[in-house]
Amino acid sequence: MPEVRQPSPASSPLQAAPSRGGGRLPHGFHRAPHSHPHGQLVYAAAGALATTTERGTWVAPFNRVTWTPPGFDHSHRFYGSTDVRILAVPVELCGELAEHPSVFAVSPLLREVLLALTDRREFRPGACERLLAVAIDELAETPEQSLHLPEPRDDRLRAVTDLLHADPGRSATLAELGRTAGASERTLSRLFHTELGMSFHRWRTILRIHHALAHLTNGLSVTETAAECGWSNPSSFIDAFTEVVGQTPGRYQADLRGTTN
């Protein structure tokens, strides 16, 4: 994801609300790797966030929520002025959700429940537990919509992915990258499929979409984002973004503006 200078607010929702809460974080705020004895849902009601574990990076724009089960080391980075909502899930309820870090679509009902759980004090006994049960029910019925970018363990493959992380817009072919990394195109192609479960082209596309989400969230135009992330023209970027994210980049920005009004 794009590198930014680390802001240093005196406190943040990630530090001040271990069970549930919310607040604004500045563009580029980064939470160092850590883990929790409970599960954790992190929702960007406005903005976007990336959650990284040893298994890779998951990106969640404002219409998705990240889920991290207990015990997983993970870090967060936030893009745009992010209205972040943090919700701990007790261990006894974690079995209802995925056993691995995931991203889920946020339905209108789930959004309102997450906002209520992180905005309001509990005026009636048991209200939070009842709302949390609704959130779990919604998530359990929602298929994963994971903008997941897996990371390799093989040193040859990691050399290639490191080059692309450093410059997502790089137009080099796999054969050209392989010469730099000291591995053949055939070997690298096989490793992309066996280690990462996808082709080189698909992996690079998702990497670029991750960066595109960050740029769009931070206010770059669709045309500027397409050029910055390596697409030769805006129309091919729009097609790729729509296929991966489920909406056009223009609609994503329009919806994002709606969440901040």
Could you characterize the architecture of this molecule?
Residues 158-255 form the HTH araC/xylS-type domain. InterPro entries: Homeodomain-like_sf (IPR009057), HTH_AraC (IPR018060), RmlC-like_jellyroll (IPR014710), RmlC_Cupin_sf (IPR011051). Residues 1-19 have a biased composition (Low complexity). Keywords: DNA-binding, Repressor, Transcription, Transcription regulation. With 261 residues, this protein is of the alpha+beta class. It folds into two domains: 13-148, Jelly Rolls, CATH 2.60.120.810; 151-260, Homeodomain-like (Arc Repressor Mutant, subunit A), CATH 1.10.10.60. It contains eleven helices and eight strands. Strands 1, 2, 3, 4, 5, 6, 7 and 8 form an eight-stranded antiparallel β-sheet that branches. Helix 8 packs across helix 10. It is globular. The model is unreliable at 2-11 (pLDDT under 50).
